[in-house]
């Protein structure tokens, strides 16, 4: 299997190269040359780690099968508390795919606990001995998940950039207390897009790359623009389907709809890959918060990043430029020149419009909707009071949209992307309580009220020492990168 750039088909790489490099040199994203077809029925009988190895090997063809079997067994066992890909029943026809049983309590652990192993092996496959410097822009969850995955991995340095005040206090502490000799964390003045644009500028700067190359350092990305981030996420769509089969809620071949709380369009795009590989996926419903740029795009065909930016209670979805949409545009149009032109327009004018035929094809697979802040709070309360199900703010965005888009007779799986204890103040307030200022006090009160126990990793943050307090401007991200020595 080879990969090529969404903006230039002639740039062809292996899976190891795609993972080591992250982004194609001219700014495009790597996509697989075709969609491998798999024996879905057989895969549905497998345990999660085996399922993951079998799906990954279709794409990562220059990795050995033994390596993939070991890596997935190490990643998706104890670290996920035996709950990798766990599907919780919520109400008639609706279930929640709980993706937050990993070490940092957000779905990003699925990719970022595995990625370091994939990267180290990619370097080995390619015979590379340089130091890898990973730069991560994060709206909260990616940063911690990447730090946890990459800390103290030999040959790797990681620097994380998050928007000041753009994360919950728990998310901030998760990053600021990160241990490890090879990690660094910076607050960036501005919002997530400012941080992401700053990081992208460094990746696109040939001068910086050349200076670092002289010191035998190479830049790489852990953001979901990296193929290694996307591919592990395909697996849990299969796992959800397998559990519905086992529970007797569907028979093989029945279609299942998925509703996904969306920011950078990575998680939902993984569902599109699962569908293209043969999984009977019905509709993929894209759920947005008040930053509803994707709802507008999927409805009208015009993507406009030039709009008001809202800070919401679902900060990991406070995004105006959904990078992974570029991959979908490539798969639907099949044209690198067309995608390059759309992305040029986005860069220069802040918007683009796809052809009506393109929109029509996208709409065959994707539904959409968005939730206001009031609706998110109402949804948390409704799910708790009516179904006894406690969810976080991001998941609530999706529950609200799922209700509007639920089709008679078609099971709906809502992707639950974070533990409610990661956003304890918002969840408490939604349940009708006055939240204490302090996140830990709120966490405790949420435990008392609901009888649920906060994940140990979150509760333990209280005792940990803060290591990082630097605040920088987006332009200074380049200086940070250039500060690294071999
Ligand atoms: C990152 C994140 C999302 C959005 O996922 P994308 O792949 O960026 O669309 C949703 N919910 C939570 C909790 C997240 O951390």
Number of helices: 22
Low-confidence stretches: none
Strand content: 15-25%
Strand order of the largest sheet: 4-5-15-10-11-14
Helical amount: 40-55%
What is the SS-derived class?
alpha/beta
Mean pLDDT: 95
**Got a strand count?**
16
Largest sheet: 6 strands, mixed
Structure ligands: pyridoxal-5'-phosphate
Note the gap between the termini: 33 Å
Which quaternary structure do these chains form?
Answer: single chain
What this model shows, in words?
- This protein has 486 residues and is of the alpha/beta class.
- The protein contains 22 helices and 16 strands.
- The chain is globular and about 60 Å long.
- The protein starts with a strand and ends with a helix.
- The model has no long low-confidence stretch (mean pLDDT 95).
- The structure holds pyridoxal-5'-phosphate.
In short:
By secondary structure, the chain is α/β, with parallel strands linked by helices. It has helices spanning 15-21, 40-43, 48-59, 65-75, 109-112, 115-126, 141-150, 169-176, 192-203, 206-214, 227-246, 266-276, 293-300, 325-333, 336-349, 356-365, 373-387, 393-405, 424-430, 439-450, 456-459, 477-482, and strands spanning 3-5, 8-13, 30-32, 86-91, 94-98, 131-137, 156-163, 183-188, 217-221, 256-261, 281-288, 302-304, 351-353, 366-370, 412-416, 471-472. The strands form 4 sheets. Strands 4-5-15-10-11-14 form a 6-stranded mixed sheet, sandwiched between helices. The protein has a 5-stranded parallel sheet with strand order 9-6-7-8-16.
């Amino acid at each position: 299997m080879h990969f090529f750039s969404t903006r230039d088909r002639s740039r062809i790489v292996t899976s190891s190269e795609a993972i080591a490099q992250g982004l194609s040199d001219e700014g495009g994203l790597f996509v697989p040359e075709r969609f491998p077809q798999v024996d879905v029925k057989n895969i549905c009988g497998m345990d999660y780690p085996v399922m993951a190895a079998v799906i990954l090997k279709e794409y990562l063809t220059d990795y050995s099968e033994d390596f993939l079997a070991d890596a997935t067994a190490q990643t998706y066992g104890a670290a996920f508390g035996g709950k990798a890909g766990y599907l919780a029943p919520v109400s008639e026809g609706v279930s929640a795919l709980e993706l937050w049983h990993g070490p940092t309590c957000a779905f990003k652990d699925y990719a970022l606990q595995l990625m370091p192993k994939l990267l180290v092996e990619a370097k080995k496959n390619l015979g590379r001995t340089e130091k890898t410097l990973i730069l991560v822009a994060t709206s909260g969850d990616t940063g911690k998940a990447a730090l946890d995955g990459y800390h103290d991995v030999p040959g790797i340095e990681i620097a994380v950039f998050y928007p000041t005040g753009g994360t919950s206090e728990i998310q901030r502490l998760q990053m600021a207390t990160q241990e490890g000799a090879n990690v660094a964390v910076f607050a960036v003045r501005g919002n997530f897009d400012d941080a992401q644009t700053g990081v992208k500028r460094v990746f696109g700067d040939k001068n910086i790359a050349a200076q670092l190359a002289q010191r035998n350092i190479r830049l790489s990305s852990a953001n979901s623009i990296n193929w290694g981030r996307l591919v592990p996420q395909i697996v849990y769509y299969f796992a959800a389907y397998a559990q519905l089969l086992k529970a007797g809620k569907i028979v093989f071949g029945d279609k299942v709809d998925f509703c996904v709380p969306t920011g950078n369009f990575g998680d939902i795009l993984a569902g599109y890959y699962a569908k293209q590989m043969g999984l009977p996926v019905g509709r993929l419903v894209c759920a947005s918060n008040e930053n509803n740029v994707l709802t507008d795009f999927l409805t009208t065909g015009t993507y406009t990043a030039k709009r008001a930016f809202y800070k919401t209670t679902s900060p990991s979805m406070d995004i105006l430029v959904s990078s992974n949409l570029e991959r979908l545009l490539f798969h639907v149009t099949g044209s690198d020149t067309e995608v390059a032109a759309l992305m040029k327009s986005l860069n220069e004018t802040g918007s683009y419009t796809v052809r009506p035929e393109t929109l029509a094809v996208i709409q065959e697979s994707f539904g959409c909707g968005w939730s206001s802040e009031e609706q998110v709070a109402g949804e948390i309360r409704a799910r708790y009071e009516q179904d006894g199900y406690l969810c976080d703010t991001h998941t609530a965005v999706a529950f609200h949209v799922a209700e509007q888009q639920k089709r008679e007779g078609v099971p709906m799986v809502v992707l639950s992307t974070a533990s409610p204890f990661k956003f304890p103040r918002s969840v408490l307030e939604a349940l009708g309580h006055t939240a204490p200022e302090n996140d830990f006090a709120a966490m405790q009160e949420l435990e008392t009220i609901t009888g649920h126990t906060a994940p140990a990793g979150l509760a333990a943050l209280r005792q940990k020492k803060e290591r990082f307090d630097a605040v920088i401007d987006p332009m200074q991200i380049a200086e940070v990168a250039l500060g690294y020595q071999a």
